[in-house]
Amino acid sequence: MAISGGQKPAQRPARAQWLDSGNSITQQFMAIGGRADIVSLAGGLPAAELYPVEAIARASERALARWGSVALEYGSVEGLPALRAAIAERISASAGRRFGPENVLLTTGAMQGLDLLGKALIDPGDLIVNQFPTYLGALDAWRPRQPRYERLDWSGEGPGFEAGLRQAKFVYAVPNYSNPTGVLVSQARRAALLDKVLEAGTWLVEDDPYLPLQLDGAAGPSILALHGERHPTGAYDGPVIYLGTLSKSLVPGLRVGWVVAEAGMIATLALAKQSTDISSSMFTQAVALELIESGFEAEHIPRIVAAYRERRDALCAAAAQHLSEWFSWEVPPGGMFVWMRAKSAEIDTNALYACALEEKVAFVPSSVFDPDGRLTDAMRVNFTRSSPEVITEGVRRLERAVQRYLASKAGRAA
Amino acid sequence: MAISGGQKPAQRPARAQWLDSGNSITQQFMAIGGRADIVSLAGGLPAAELYPVEAIARASERALARWGSVALEYGSVEGLPALRAAIAERISASAGRRFGPENVLLTTGAMQGLDLLGKALIDPGDLIVNQFPTYLGALDAWRPRQPRYERLDWSGEGPGFEAGLRQAKFVYAVPNYSNPTGVLVSQARRAALLDKVLEAGTWLVEDDPYLPLQLDGAAGPSILALHGERHPTGAYDGPVIYLGTLSKSLVPGLRVGWVVAEAGMIATLALAKQSTDISSSMFTQAVALELIESGFEAEHIPRIVAAYRERRDALCAAAAQHLSEWFSWEVPPGGMFVWMRAKSAEIDTNALYACALEEKVAFVPSSVFDPDGRLTDAMRVNFTRSSPEVITEGVRRLERAVQRYLASKAGRAA
């Protein structure tokens, strides 16, 4: 067929190379988002029916009455000064030392904090020492910068771990109810990691989105707080770069997150943010400020924690009944996920995932949490998004998916 | 001095290399943002006193009543479906062909569109052919990806221009009231560029933030529309990647912008956005939808256009009185800026800038709009942010700044 008047070339310039370096299961897993017939235990979404729509409507009204056109400006790159101060206040209260607004950068959710860290710190080939398995979103955020990864060894005893730290641009850890494993890292291990980071002279990125979701007892001090307690006076100049968000305690849709770090790092991240989106919305930041200052957030958290505890328990009870033949797990003391490890090497959760879709249930296969995509013996199961009844139905479907998967394997083997 | 307990290393790992590749005058120019004693003719900010605070308060109320928790979710990466459809509708109406929601990605302002284009298309060393002088924000957005630049030759007659196009990842152009020059590119030149882009088989990024600010007559069809008219049926598969925003017609603080392109490019940009901030705020998108659907935006634009026309005329009148000895300019038919070129090579606007700050007035020196930082004979002067009286006072201060600058040069020469 003739090309008409040279109008349509065979191919325009290719997209950037990093876009073809991802894990194909990730794409597949993203694609099911919209299917209403599927019970999704896959996402990391809060319970939408608990979103405080009325409180946010009232906060929006108050925010515009209070700030007027200021809430509708580009605003400063670092964020609405009053909200920066409020976050500094909150962090100071829990960290045994003073942080000021100069230690806070407001971001479009904590996810943007990860993107900005990648931009500001990573040159191609740089080393990141990261908690393993690790948050898919962090791997995604840093892929355009093409780093290398080594595994964070919380025991601190692995060979070469300290040498790795000395070469690393930063360490990435989610000590509170990690995504995907739900693990709460002990205070002793946090302190030991802090010591090693200080010795190695590198940065430590502490990602703490799940802090509000303390289902069984307190999470204990953050690594930022552990360092703060050792240096209670003067300007903060420690190695911890701490990420927080309102997405889990209130709603994701305001897209309000923050980075807390020494002032020079905040200035560097602000430079990266300036060239990313000029500024986040001052309007949603002003709404967030109302929700924090009025005490609404603090009052709301116990409501969602109670609901999530019930849902976690429903998930674990159903799994004990339907999945314990093939999977084992620990009951997570907080967060949003149960991490189920296959008891037998014969289960590959990438392959199981296809059977799960046929049974109209979704989870997240473990391979997406591995920079190399090789971890295929576990799955992440969410308990926050759906009611106990829906979760229980999802687990029943998972049981059928495992049976279908094993039967098809046996059929192929026969 | 002894290092106490190995706690504070001399230096932690360095920031990414691109951060040290910028133009130092840019930093200096950013730094004055907050100084109340300075008349700033520097920024690209709308008139805050014209922000429709009341209309936005009402739209927020309606948006939450209409969408409830949907407006408070992460939402889909591509944006609120109803707003994608509304933008597709708007673009279709002006482009002589149909665009669908699949052709629209909503972004955190048009600036994020530039960031995502950089992520999605640029590998280090890739060539961009860009309008010269060009928008500082675009250069900033792409710096982390480290591209090379060649100048867009609107005459199309320069040697090697077509060869450059064939090697380029994309062309970047701001045909309507360009930042910084205010130039409105003729329809003939737009069509000629489109032909060459089609021939070369590259992408064409058409950045159109100033479209609503048509101060003298109509802007005429966009390049997207020129291409659309040639291919009125079928799915859009042209080379134009078009960027728009509500920041100039309504307010910047909602941070609502959009990219319109063929569906495959939108999917690629959405992949990049997923790993950047998961999604923009559904809440501010729902508010924007109310403001568009209710006809408020269309009704508001004539009010700001009238005010900006008066301010532009005030700036040009004051400049004719106080600056015409040293600078020449064309009255821009739209947008936010007057581009003033020095009549004599003895004026270097980087150096003039320091004198301007001493006289408590700011502009943007031309060097920041040059990827190589070498363009030092012009300045960008904004007329939208301040009242005619303040603008006139700013121009008087500029006159004194030029006198001070020339006197100090003469002093050094003597």
UniProtKB/TrEMBL annotation, chains A, B:
Its cofactor is pyridoxal 5'-phosphate. GO terms for biological process: alpha-amino acid metabolic process. GO terms for molecular function: pyridoxal phosphate binding; transaminase activity. It holds the Pfam family Aminotran_1_2. SUPFAM superfamilies: PLP-dependent transferases (SSF53383). InterPro entries: Aminotransferase_I/II_large, Class-I_PLP-dep_aminotransf, PyrdxlP-dep_Trfase, PyrdxlP-dep_Trfase_major, PyrdxlP-dep_Trfase_small. Residues 45-398 form the Aminotransferase class I/classII large domain. Keywords: Aminotransferase, Pyridoxal phosphate, Transferase. This is PLP-dependent aminotransferase family protein.
